[in-house]
Amino acid sequence: TDDLLWLPYLLTRYLEETADRGLLKSKEPFLDDKTGATLYDHSARAIDRVLKRMSKRGLPLIGAGDWNDGLSAVGLKWKGESVWLGQFLYGVLVDFAEVAGLMKDQSRARRYAAAAKKLRAAINKHGWDGEYYLGATKDSGEKLGSRKNTQGKVWLNTQTWSILANVADAARANRVFDVVERELEGKNGTLLVKPAYSTPDPEIGYLTRYAPGMRENGGVYTHAATWSVIAAAKLGRAEAAYRMFQKLNPAILGSAPHEYIAEPYVTPGNIEGPDSRFYGKGGWTWYSGSATWLFKAGVESILGVRASRQGLVVDPCIPKSWESCSVTRLFRGAVYRIAIENPDGHSTGVNTVAVNGDTIDVERIGTGIILPIMPRGSELRVKVVLGDA
Predict the structure, then answer these.
(1) Measured in whole angstroms, how far is the alpha carbon of residue 33 from the centre of its chain?
(2) DSSP-assigned letter for residue 217
(3) Cα–Cα distance between 283 and 270 in angstroms, integer?
(4) Among 317, 304, 306, which residue's Cα sits nearest to residue 242?
(5) Nearest residue to 264 via CA among 275, 255, 273
(6) Over the stretch 239-274, which tens digit does the pLDDT of each residue have?
């Protein structure tokens, strides 16, 4: 039930990278109707479809699984709810409300903004378990990912995406990340659920038919574990972000070949968790999705260089011990050669910025800055010194 929402999510990222609104007007066919519609309309229809599949409590229905398709039986009667899908949908609604505004579709922009506000309140009321966020509810209403469960008590995705999608306020965001570090972080990254299910549950799905500690059943699912890195960096927890990144780094994992088994030069789809007798074994390698998210986590969250509609953001979240690092980034046809210096042992915060040797004033965003958009073909030498602004 999440698949259709990745189109508007990706189009929003595309606009941040390129500012090319023309793609939104590109006409593409439907499977059963070759006359088609614009990509903007395809995206809006996807969002509207999910908004029609909501529970009485205002949470999205999970159907035969959300991002975690191992939850293949949680909502087959269309009563079970997904807290994670609510968090993801909230972020999509907020972003696409802005896109609708750019397209002069003001009524849709207002409708999505109102739906987002209502959804966020529902998640924080019905999806909160007292210390962290629930995972889902079954068709029967039974809670999953709750302190009251004996197995599958804590789920990773609803903690990280409460942070990534800005569903949790600052205090709650830090609180749930404490839970991630304390309960879910192991020697090879963060576990998808803990503890693993030891007996199949026909009301959950094939996740519970995996051996304990394998893949979605209490293993490190690399794709989801990268979101832990991004969440840590967003909270300014530099040491945690880098530590979790290195635990997923196949070059590091491969230094223990007798345990890891898998190739040391590609990302694995999963690493077996502590409930497996093969704890630390990699599997399902050559996973391009996991590789891409791990790359994004390193460059965009730890090094902090990422696209925005306003310009190129530089917002590092690096270990205090790093004296310097550098990034070369092509952005909208211009090359930005960025040197980040850290003379006083900071993790975040930008003190000064120089472009081609001249110190400049730049727009600030949180702990980072936004570099100006330059003409295509330009090449900039950027020096960023970390410290207090």
Answers:
(1) 33
(2) B
(3) 5
(4) 317
(5) 255
(6) 999 999 999 999 999 999 999 999 999 999 999 999
Helix (H) or strand (E) segment spanning residue 141: none
Look up the pTM and report it. 0.97
Is pLDDT above 90 for 312?
Answer: yes
**Length of the chain (residues):** 389
| HEC string for 14-27 | HHHHHCCHHHHHCE
Residues near 378 by beta carbon (within 8 Å), at least 6 away in sequence = 333, 334, 335
CB 162 within 8 A of CB 173: yes
Sign of CA dihedral 140, 141, 145, 151: negative
Tokens of 239: 């040491």
Distance of CA 354 to the CA centre of its chain: 31
The predicted-structure confidence for 191-233, as pLDDT tens digits, reads as follows 999 999 999 999 999 999 999 999 999 999 999 999 999 999 9
SS3 207: helix
Name the token pair of 192. Answer: 């998808």
149: closest CA among 208, 226, 87? 208
| Contact (CB, 8 A) for 116 and 94 | yes
Residues 6+ apart with CB under 8 A from 343: 323, 385, 386, 387
CB atoms closer than 10 angstroms to residue 361: 8
Separation between Cα atoms, residue 91 and residue 87, nearest integer Å: 7
Query: How are beta strands 311-314 and 324-331 bridged, if at all?
Result: unpaired
Question: How do strand 185-186 and strand 189-190 relate by DSSP bridges?
Answer: antiparallel
Q: Is 323 helix (H, G, I), strand (E, B) or coil?
A: coil
Whether the per-residue pLDDT at 389 is higher than 90: the answer is: no
